[in-house]
């Protein structure tokens, strides 16, 4: 507390407008402070020791340097699905609950995934660039597969992946999924074939990623595993960039083993203009935008505020990642 009132500290370098959060929190008699990286050193001294709760945007690193100064903090909430920007073990050692908001953008991310899948396999981005440079030739593009004769594999089978499976079913594709934390009943309910990781890789003509970035999934898709995909396969990533070893992906596309990739996320964001994947016509890129709609942003901020309020007043915090770490996207 500061001056006898609860304080929530918002750490964010990306979004400038926090009027909604301020309105919600102040309606619960909670004061709000918003800080950006350039103000962090001074604000850490002024507000860190008094913050009862912290909301951290997904691109803002919240490590030992910050958490060690949170003398009054009860809860840290990630403003997004991911929570790898927060040092969860260190927060746990200090009795701080860490939570995220995993289900605010299921519709948006699943739609974006399907959009990327269709665009990259139909070579829409390549045709678009060709026509804009004066080339009107339907044959002037890499080979295009018939989607209904291919298999789509889902790495992870949480809420977003299940929506992707539902939306893809009308295209006639066969759908596989690997997720060791999801029960057989869920696979049966969604009419998706459950397979091992190796089988998923060996059989997927299109592989879509739907797992969080953890110590287990970091660089999970390295050269060895990417080479297990059938020749001519496509890779779709709307989860986290660090799951893929990007230099290996680049090499396998150059070598012709993979036909292309559609990436909404990179290991380091934004990627440098010289990043080799950005100059490859087989690669379609969007700027970590899969989550975005007017409605999803409002929902995200509202749910984050509800979680931080619960944590401050001692109620159970939804989606606390340091109570049960078995989360899927």
Describe this structure in words.
- This protein starts with 5 loop residues before the first strand and ends in a 16-residue tail after the last helix.
- It is an alpha/beta fold and 329 residues long.
- The strands form 2 sheets. Strands 8-7-6-9-10-11-12 form a 7-stranded parallel beta sheet, with helices on both faces. It has a 5-stranded parallel beta sheet with strand order 2-1-3-4-5.
- The protein has helices spanning 19-27, 40-46, 64-67, 88-93, 106-121, 124-132, 159-168, 184-189, 197-203, 223-226, 246-254, 294-313, and strands at 6-11, 30-35, 53-57, 75-79, 97-99, 151-155, 174-178, 193-194, 206-209, 233-237, 258-263, 283-285.
- Residues 324-329 have low confidence and may be disordered.
- It folds into 2 domains: 6-104 and 294-313, Rossmann fold, CATH 3.40.50.720; 106-285, NAD(P)-binding Rossmann-like Domain (Rossmann fold, 3-Layer(aba) Sandwich).
- Helix 11 (246-254) links the parallel strand 10 (233-237) and strand 11.
- The protein contains 12 helices and 12 strands.
- Helix 1 (19-27) packs parallel to helix 12 and helix 5 (106-121) crosses helix 7.
- The chain is elongated.
- The chain is 33% helix and 17% strand.
């Amino acid at each position: 507390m500061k001056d006898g009132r609860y304080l929530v500290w918002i750490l964010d370098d990306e979004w400038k407008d926090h009027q909604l959060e301020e309105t919600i929190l102040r309606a619960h008699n909670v004061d709000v402070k918003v800080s950006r990286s350039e103000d962090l050193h001074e604000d850490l001294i002024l507000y860190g020791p008094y913050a009862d709760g912290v909301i951290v945007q997904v691109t803002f690193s919240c490590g030992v340097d910050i958490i060690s100064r949170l003398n009054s903090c009860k809860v840290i909430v990630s403003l997004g699905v991911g929570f790898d920007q927060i040092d969860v073990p260190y927060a746990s050692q200090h009795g701080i609950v860490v939570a995220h908001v995993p289900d605010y953008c299921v519709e948006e991310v699943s739609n974006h995934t399907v959009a990327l899948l269709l665009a990259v396999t139909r070579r829409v981005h390549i045709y678009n660039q060709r026509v804009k440079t004066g080339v009107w030739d339907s044959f002037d593009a890499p080979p295009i597969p018939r989607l209904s004769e291919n298999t789509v594999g889902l790495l992870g089978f949480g809420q977003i992946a299940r929506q992707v499976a539902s939306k893809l079913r009308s295209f006639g594709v066969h759908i596989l999924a690997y997720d060791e934390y999801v029960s057989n009943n869920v696979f049966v309910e969604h009419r998706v074939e459950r397979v091992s990781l190796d089988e998923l890789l060996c059989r997927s003509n299109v592989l879509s990623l739907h797992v969080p970035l953890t110590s287990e999934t970091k660089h999970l898709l390295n050269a060895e595993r990417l080479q297990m995909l059938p020749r001519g396969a496509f890779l779709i990533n709307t989860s986290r960039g660090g799951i893929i070893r990007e230099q290996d992906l680049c090499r396998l596309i150059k070598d012709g083993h993979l036909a292309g990739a559609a990436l909404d996320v990179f290991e380091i964001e934004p990627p440098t203009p010289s990043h080799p994947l950005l100059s490859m016509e087989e690669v379609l890129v969007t700027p970590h935008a899969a989550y975005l709609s007017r409605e999803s942003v409002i929902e995200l901020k509202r749910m984050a505020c509800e979680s931080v309020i619960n944590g401050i007043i001692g109620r159970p915090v939804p989606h606390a990642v340091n109570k049960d770490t078995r989360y899927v996207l």
